[in-house]
Fold this protein.
Amino acid sequence: MKTPERVAVVGSSSFPLTPDIAVEVVAILRGFGDGTVFLTRPSGGFDAFIRAASEVLGRTCVVYASPGGSKNWDRDVQLVRDADIVLAFFDPDSLHREDTGTAHIVEKALDQKKPTRAWSVAHNELVFAGSMNDD
């Protein structure tokens, strides 16, 4: 029996999560098979939505806590290490910033050569921003 896929799902706390975009994000999550375990952070906003969506979908969601500060960076490294694939959702207003937690997760995913997919929002629609190391 194959070990369930572990999918890290993170996003900007200010990600513009409208009802229509939320439906699209849930459809992405639903695309992963039964037994998938989602990994995320204890942040509010998007990450809180992922925790709630996981529950509604009947999927396990493991939250990687941190005492804060520089320990968040260590937590991000471990979260990515434990993931088979990383999904990141960027607020379009901070997409250019490299100093966000979501950007750090993607940086660590690329360092660890994990399959990584990213989305943002344009014209009030979810848009695929790209992928790396994706089979």
Summary: The chain has a mean pLDDT of 91. Residues 30 and 57 are 7 Å apart (CA to CA).
